[in-house]
Design the sequence.
């Protein structure tokens, strides 16, 4: 098919499936934390709007989590089917970490998800809240293990290479897990998940503000509440994310300078480097065309000093240079969206102070457009870091070309076609169902306490009031 | 010390992995079985009831498979890296089927149009059947053996991508689908009442008979595949270990049918089916041991270094009991009969 190689198709398939997958765990991480906060606030204040929002977003969570589970299932097997050489060589190190992820996080999420979704009228409020928190903690633990594994592939430490088989053997597990880039990546990814969800929530709220305005009525209390919470999140977290991204940049410069050179489109290593705002890196002619640059800024951003030395791609042999054009743009899109988020956050603070937070239609229109911005930035960020690791799977040690399975091309073509078709079906259906849920305005629960006799919870707690069919 | 660790750690992990796979088989077995039984049940309400008996727990059930994959990767990377390429297509079809089935839990209840409902009902039913069928093919392929080349202790699969397409593996696929349906039917006898329970009771007779027939055929067929399997079953002292199995199968089957006949017994058929699965599973275990990729890779050859296996075992000792505890708790919370007005969605 189109003269493609098995290696290329295996890489393309991985990029396709992981790109599809990553959106859902990020959505789940942010949303689970949001749900725990909402339920906690409801229990603390007794304000029913919090419970309404909890139920509203729980419906979304159920769809998002289900799609995350099934697309993640594919990942855990793709290593074996398409990357069997990688699995045999790096398996002794990465396998236990992934197994720990399943044991400490996945089971926790799946075990308490049922109680969280369907259990409010079956267990006590306290136990239910505990379940929600456990699901949220599960998503965070899961992220921690995945980021530890991924970071080890970027900045491997604590391994011994077995001479006979070329396998990586574990030497020191603490060094493996707490490898040099792990803390930075963990923080950056966690904040990205929270921000992504904040912008989805803000987008949905904005939609209902504008709709209510068109219909000449006030948006519901729930809409205002979730808009306000989302805007606090954007205002507080997006500047923190900027700092987190900056420190990760410093870390990357220290451990993966070739990646930084490719991200910046820099060819010559130099002090007092300019920052290229726009340009088109050309791998063949070793230059960046149409450069628009600001003097000294490159050194200032990357090294925090005006004459700091910035690496250039010419420092590295041609065959180990990451593909700069892709990195250059994915990195810039991420940064641009990040800056936009900071501006929106500041704007919301100003409007809040002036008392116009819920009435500024310009902000609301912008936020509808920005609803998926967190996910776009997250995908661009992952593209930058993963493509920047090339041509290695384990940075500097194991080439991607030596990681692939001895799989025939027809197999990969079959599976790729099948994945595209099936993902297209479920992704389309998922978007339709999500948008349909978003189109419903969150409102006060019209159903009072159930007319049915109170049920006994698993323990002895009696549920005094629970809306019937509440998780419908 | 390391020498002895590298001999017993793989054994511990083989037992743990087998246990995890068995837990997966029975848990996802009954929920896949319910999907297959959708074929038989036409009524929309009844289908909802069937789905609602598993809606709160299927996620947890499927996690055992992800654990199986991750543990295989961590403790037997060689097996992981050779079995998976050999089973590329069956695994692919299983994954796609599980994806469609998994999302249909959410989508089915949210569809308003008849086409949407029909589509996701079909996805749920078809996905469950294909997943079960592929799992049987995977099992059959493993039993019949996977051709492997060993170069400098790097093992590579050297067969073709259609090696799994044999009568034996296909029959195993069918057998697993039938067995899972029996698990699903007996689960529903336990969790439902009224007409639906009656339907399932009737279905379970036929499925029980078919399951026993399939067990008999596979038991006769398997020893013919390899000389070593033949020795395993009919030589001393293995025969002493193996001889009670057919006897136990007969006793358990009788219990199953007695349970089905007695209208008051709602739990016994399910328990008997579980025992039947356990007997088959241990039979297969005895058959394959100590190979993890028959006929050439033993559990020791497939193992990751003791440092990896020990690291994971430390955690597993505490985590697996905890996981089992809250899994059981989750089943306990959602115990009892499910009727049409219990809406989990």
Sequence:
């Amino acid at each position: 098919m189109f003269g493609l190689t098995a290696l290329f198709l295996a890489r393309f398939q991985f990029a396709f499936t992981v790109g599809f997958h990553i959106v859902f765990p990020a959505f789940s991480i942010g949303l689970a934390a949001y749900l725990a906060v909402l339920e906690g606030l409801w229990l603390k204040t007794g304000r029913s709007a919090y419970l309404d929002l909890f139920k509203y977003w729980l419906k979304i969570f159920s769809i998002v989590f289900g799609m995350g589970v099934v697309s993640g299932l594919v990942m855990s097997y793709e290593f074996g089917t398409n990357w069997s050489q990688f699995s045999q060589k790096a398996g002794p190190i990465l396998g236990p970490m992934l197994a720990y992820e399943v044991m400490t996080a996945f089971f926790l999420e799946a075990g308490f998800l049922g109680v969280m979704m369907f259990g409010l009228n079956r267990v006590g409020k306290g136990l239910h809240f505990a379940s929600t928190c456990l699901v949220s903690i599960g998503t965070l633990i899961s992220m921690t293990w995945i980021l530890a594994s991924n970071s080890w592939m970027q900045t491997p430490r604590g391994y011994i290479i077995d001479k006979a088989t070329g396998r990586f053997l574990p030497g020191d597990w603490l060094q493996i897990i707490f490898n040099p880039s792990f803390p930075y990546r963990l923080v950056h990814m966690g904040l990205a998940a929270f921000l992504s969800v904040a912008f989805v929530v803000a987008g949905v709220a904005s939609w209902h503000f504008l709709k209510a305005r068109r219909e000449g009525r006030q948006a519901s209390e729930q809409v205002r509440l979730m808009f306000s919470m989302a805007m606090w999140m954007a205002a507080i977290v997006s500047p923190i994310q900027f700092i987190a991204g900056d420190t990760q940049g410093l870390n990357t410069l220290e451990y993966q300078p070739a990646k930084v050179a490719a991200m910046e489109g820099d060819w010559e290593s130099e002090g007092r480097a300019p920052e290229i705002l726009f340009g088109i890196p050309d791998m063949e002619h070793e230059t960046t065309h149409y450069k628009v640059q600001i003097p000294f800024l490159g050194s200032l951003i990357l090294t925090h000093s005006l004459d700091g030395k910035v690496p250039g791609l010419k420092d590295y042999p041609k065959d180990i240079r990451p593909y700069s054009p892709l990195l250059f743009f994915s990195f810039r899109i991420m940064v641009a969206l990040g800056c936009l988020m900071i501006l929106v956050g500041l704007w919301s603070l100003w409007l809040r102070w002036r008392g116009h937070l819920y009435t500024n239609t310009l902000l609301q229109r912008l936020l509808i457009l920005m609803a998926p911005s967190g996910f776009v930035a997250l995908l661009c960020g992952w593209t930058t870091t993963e493509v920047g690791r090339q041509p290695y799977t384990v940075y500097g040690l194991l080439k991607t070309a030596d990681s692939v399975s001895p799989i025939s091309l027809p197999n990969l073509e079959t599976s790729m076609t099948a994945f595209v078709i099936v993902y297209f079906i479920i992704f389309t259906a998922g978007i339709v169902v999500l948008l349909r849920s978003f189109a419903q305005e969150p409102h006060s629960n019209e159903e009072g306490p159930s007319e049915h006799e109170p049920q006994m919870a698993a323990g002895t707690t009696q549920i005094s009031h629970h809306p019937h069919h509440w998780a419908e | 010390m390391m020498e002895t660790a590298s001999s017993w750690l793989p054994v511990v992990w083989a037992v743990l992995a087998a246990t995890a796979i068995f837990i997966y088989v029975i848990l996802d077995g009954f929920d896949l079985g319910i999907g297959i039984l959708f074929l038989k049940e036409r009524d929309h309400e009844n289908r909802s009831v069937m789905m609602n008996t598993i809606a709160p727990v299927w996620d947890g059930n499927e996690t055992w498979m992800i654990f199986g994959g991750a543990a295989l990767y961590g403790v037997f990377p060689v097996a992981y890296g050779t079995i998976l390429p050999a089973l590329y297509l069956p695994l692919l079809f299983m994954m796609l089927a599980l994806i469609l089935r998994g999302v249909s839990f959410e989508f089915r209840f949210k569809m308003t149009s008849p086409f949407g409902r029909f589509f996701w009902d079909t996805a749920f039913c078809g996905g469950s059947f294909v997943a079960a069928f592929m799992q049987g093919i995977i099992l059959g392929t493993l039993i019949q053996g996977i051709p492997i080349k060993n170069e400098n202790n790097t093992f590579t699969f050297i067969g073709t991508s259609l090696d799994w397409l044999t009568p034996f593996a296909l029959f195993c696929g069918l057998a697993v689908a039938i067995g899972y349906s029996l698990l699903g039917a007996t689960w529903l006898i336990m969790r439902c009442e009224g007409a639906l329970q009656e339907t399932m009771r009737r279905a379970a007779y036929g499925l029980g008979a078919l399951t026993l027939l399939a067990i008999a055929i596979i038991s006769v067929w398997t020893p013919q595949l390899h000389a070593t399997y033949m020795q395993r079953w009919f030589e001393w002292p293995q025969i002493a270990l193996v001889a009670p199995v057919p006897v136990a199968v007969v006793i358990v089957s009788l219990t199953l049918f007695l349970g089905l006949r007695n209208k008051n017994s709602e739990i016994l058929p399910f328990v008997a089916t579980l025992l039947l699965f356990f007997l088959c599973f241990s039979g297969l275990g005895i058959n394959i041991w100590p190979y993890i990729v028959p006929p050439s890779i033993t559990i020791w050859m497939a193992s990751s270094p003791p440092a990896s296996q020990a690291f994971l075992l430390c955690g597993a000792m505490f985590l697996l009991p905890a996981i089992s505890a809250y899994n059981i708790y989750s089943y306990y919370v959602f115990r009892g009969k499910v009727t049409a007005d219990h809406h989990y969605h």
About this structure: Chain A has 13 helices and six strands. The first helix of chain A runs from residue 6 to 45. Residues 189-407 of chain A form one domain. Chain A touches chain B through 79 residues (CB under 8 Å).
